[in-house]
Amino acid sequence: MKYLILGAGPSGLSFANRLLSCGEQDFLVLEAQEDAGGLCRSRDVDGSPLDIGGGHFLDVRDQKVLSFLFPFMDESEWDLYDRNSRIVVNGNEINSPIEANIWQMKLEDQVEYLKSIAVAGCNLGEEMPEKFVDWIYWKLGGKIAKDYMIPYNQKMFGQDLNALGTYWLNKLPNVSFEETLISCLEKKAYGKQPAHAKFYYPKKYGYGELWKRMADALGEKIKYNTPVRSIDFENRTVNDTFSADRIILTIPWKNVEKLAGVPEEHMQRIADLKYSSVVITYYPEHMDTPAHWIYYPDPALSYHRILVRHNFCPGSKGYWTETNLNRFSADENRGREYFVNDFAYPLNTMGKEENMAELLKWAETKNVFGLGRWGEWQHYNSDVVVSRAMDLADQLQGK
Q1: CA–CA separation, 131 vs 378, rounded Å?
Q2: CB atoms near residue 332 (< 10 Å)
Q3: Which pLDDT tens digit goes with each residue over 107-122?
Q4: Average pLDDT of the residues in 135-142
Q5: What are residue 357's phi and psi, to 5 degrees?
Q6: How far apart are CA 60 and CA 81, in angstroms?
């Protein structure tokens, strides 16, 4: 065939449907699971949808993406929300991001945070450090670092934060003492809103419904229950069964047992890739909060985030937690519904950007194209991977 697409998550489904919309039908999608959607799949739990891969929402900012997706699930089937995300830190429940909402804390805490921000390295003109932990202190000040950023990232990604690079942190805003002081005095947030400042979520379904419909649109061009065991890069064959002119790889590089024809230097790059696993656990109890999701840096709590289902999924109840697999206890959650996601977050380790650039450049010489969160090993949201899939499909078809 012309195209063999590995994985029926948002990346693979978007690429395949883009081909179809352009009149290209010579392709096949291989999916390891019995259904499509990847990390964006949903299940019916306690009478309502639950997103088993964590919290996923459709951002409103990219009109190209929305125009592509709404034919599968019309805009009338979505509710539009203004993001309400919170952080619980030192007994304060404030809006996220923390640097814009210190004014919501107790007065004595505001003073301590302001004092810390005033002497942050970036505000004193000190040289930017190279290690992750030092960088956080330099950028945000000791108080935000110790109370929020360090413990939260340890809960999400593991204790050894200095194994992470700092190249992905540049999106964090500057925390100016002057702006933070004005914010506290005027009692209002400042700065840019984070991702999903406005977002769509289905009125009657979980987020997985969108991807299910995209899979259904492909008909028999998806082969389910077909995990990718081997890829031969020289012959462009998969599992010694399927061959194609071009292979679109959206699954985790590290989840393929046999990679034939890959030079040792690139095998080492693949071996060096790191990721974290998460467990999604359902709780039927009602949470008295208007928040859509809440971040918890407290190390005493196993989970790092709660998604308050009844605040964005109409007619539902309860909430679900997101917990790093290394912090999860099956015994403590006996009797609860939970879902394990082995591949949840690619880790931005030191050297990863350069290694992935070299790996992907080499793979393209073999007509194998990495795409999406796992094919590119980037922490992309679903709207971003849809855009990248559309662009790659257009590029390969010469449009």
Answers
A1: 20
A2: 9
A3: 999 999 999 999 999 9
A4: 94
A5: -60, -45
A6: 10
Average pLDDT over residues 67-71: 98
Residue 213's φ and ψ, nearest 5 degrees, are: -70, -35
Q: What is the pLDDT of residues 258-288, one digit of tens each?
A: 999 999 999 999 999 999 999 999 999 999 9
| Residue in the structure block whose two tokens are 């949470």 | 287
> Distance between CA atoms of 225 and 223, rounded to whole angstroms?
7
- Least confidently predicted of 18-32, 193-207, 273-287, 359-373: 193-207
Query: Which pLDDT value is given to residue 42?
Result: 96
Structure confidence at residue 190 as a pLDDT band (50, 70, 90): confident
Residues 29 and 337: their CA atoms lie apart, in Å, by 30
Q: What percent of the chain has pLDDT over 70?
A: 99
Distance CA 383, CA 381 (A): 6
Phi first, then psi: give them for residue 342, nearest 5 degrees: -60, -45
Spatial contact of 318 and 282, defined as CB atoms under 8 Å apart: yes
Look at the alpha carbons of 353, 355, 358, 359 in this order and tell me if their dihedral is positive or negative.
Answer: negative
Name the DSSP class of 182.
Answer: H
Could you tell me if 341 and 277 are in contact, meaning their C-beta atoms sit under 8 angstroms apart? yes
What is the secondary structure of 61-111 as a DSSP string?
A: S-HHHHHHHTTTS-GGGEEEEE--EEEEETTEEEESSGGG-GGGS-HHHHH
Give the dihedral sign, CA 8/357/385/318: positive
Choose among 382, 380, 397: nearest CA to 9: 382
> Which two structure tokens, joined as six digits, stand for 269?
């790059």
> What one-character DSSP code corresponds to residue 349?
B
Q: Does the pTM of the predicted model rise above 0.85?
A: yes
Residue with tokens 């992905």: 168
Provide the phi-psi class of 211: left if phi over 0, else alpha when psi is between -120 and 50, else beta: alpha
* Contact (CB, 8 A) for 65 and 386: yes
Residue closest to 123 by CA, chosen among 60, 57, 178, 42:
178
Structure tokens at 153: 């990232």
Average pLDDT over all residues of the chain: 95
Compute the distance between CA of residue 346 and CA of residue 190 in angstroms, rounded to an integer.
30
